[in-house]
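Exercise 7. Given the components listed, write out the predicted structure of the assembled complex. Treat all entries as one system.
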Amino acid sequence: MIGINGLNFVVGDFALRDVTLHVERREYFVLLGKPGSGKTLLLECLAGLNRLSSGNIEIDGRRVERSEPRARGIGYVPQDYALFSARTVRRNIEFALRVQRFRPLQRNTRVNELADMLGIRRLLRRGIEGLSGGERQRVALARALAGRPKILLLDEPVSALDHETSEVILTELRRIQHQTETTTIHVCHDLDEMRAVADRVGILREGRLVQVGTPEEVCQSPADVGVARLFRLGTILTGTARAEGSGSRLEFGGFTLRASQPAEGDVRVLIRAAEVRLAPPSSQQGQVVARVESILRRDSTMRVDLRAGGTLFRAEVPRAQAQALSLKEGAEVAAFLSPQAIHLFRGTNSQ
Amino acid sequence: MFSVGVFAFLVVFLVMVLALVIADVSYSNVGALREVLRSREIRAAVVLSLWSSALTTVIAIIFAVPMGYALSRYRFPGRILADTIVDLPIVFPPLVVGLSLLVFFRTSVGLWLESLGLDFVYQRRGIVLAQFFVSASYGIRAVKTTFDEVDQRQEDVALTLGCTRGQAFRRVALRNARGGVIAGGILTWARAFGLFGPMLVFVGAVRMKTEVLPTTIYLETSIGRIEVALAVSLVMIVMATIALILIRLFGGERLW
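Answer.
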């Protein structure tokens, strides 16, 4: 459906470098990255608003990198929505239909259909000023969908909305994508937002696409330390590895662990917070006896920062388990790190 | 308290302007005003002032819209210099523009233009040329400033919604900049309507031919008919007030 091959784009002292990406038809793809990583620039390249320095873009097998934005079959919702402030909500939504000289009856039918789908029928006669953030987002979405685009490009669609409205909009985005079967590329920097909607995710860092996969795949095998940090998978430790049998023994400042992957020399290790099991200090199960440094209560879990010797690492445990253990700051606890809890980074991947 | 303070400045300024008008009215008399309205020469000057300043405004806006857009949206070598040159006529004494035009039409290029029938010196069309050179900068500056404030992202979205660059400009940028274009038109017209210095130098003060209202005031004053000159001024004030209100109403502003 969408093929980006070796895309390079330079603006000032920033560049998108050698971006190659394929997005399938009807897929909901999320481009995730920190602010300034080049997500919006990449979206603008797809929309035809930036001329590529090199590389090509294919949509449905047709090269479009030199095509005008209007010839690409895309709907674009920028971060600030960019609604036409001098027009009413209805005029905003039917803009594409007027440009394409649809008849008034066809325009009305389409506008009403979209307004019903997005629940903004009552707003049609209103001006843009005075609309809430959520209402603006819906109007921008309806405007982008009016011309029945094959591809929908969403730039940080909920970043300006409160948590509750964000959840509603994200649910609607998935529903609309399913209903209209529009291939969607959604740019965001928020992990929860990505998890809420993505079929697949691409991680962009400093203008480079560093990993592409389903959210589960990326969690399972983060390409490098940066991805593991972005996905908040746990603690990154630096240690020394010695080969032992089919796996390796890892030594940190204060404790030792066994990993199922073979390794030798200096390594960087991800300790997956969600895979760390805690038990009373007297338990024989524990590999490491650690002291609780701090506890942060979250919705269904507790984030527990632990210190073993001179090393700090994190565990994410269910609230019920934490309560059963009577966890509190300063207390000792036994931590059990299964082989699944440990992910080794090697070579250049361990940047 | 804040509102009172703000309105105090407005009232003080309005009182100052109105005081001048009232002084004019008190010095002039009904007889002088009647003479002005009956005079064939002055009526011709009224008509010439109106159409020349209106035509100048139209031409200036035709230049100001693309120029303002280019200066606002595009980055090109020499942009700052171009932007500065646009402002030069605002800084120049208007008389200098008249002298420069006169000198230009005595150069080989100017004489060649004249040989093609494009003669402006001491001609009616010269009035529009002089008004354009002095007043267009106000329009260009106003339009450029408005384009600076118009969100370019809206044009980007319009491009993805099926517009060509031209359509995006017309349907979005120009529509959003309408207020600035009207403001530019008002400034240009007002400057052109009251222009005097370059007229005297470039097109002269020939009655029934190149005489505009500011020239009339000068001519009447020079022969000591102050009350007639003031009566012409009052006519100008009334015309300008009506014209400026009409332009604002045309631009979508309300009466209150």
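Discussion: Chain B has 13 helices and no strands. Chain B has a mean pLDDT of 92.
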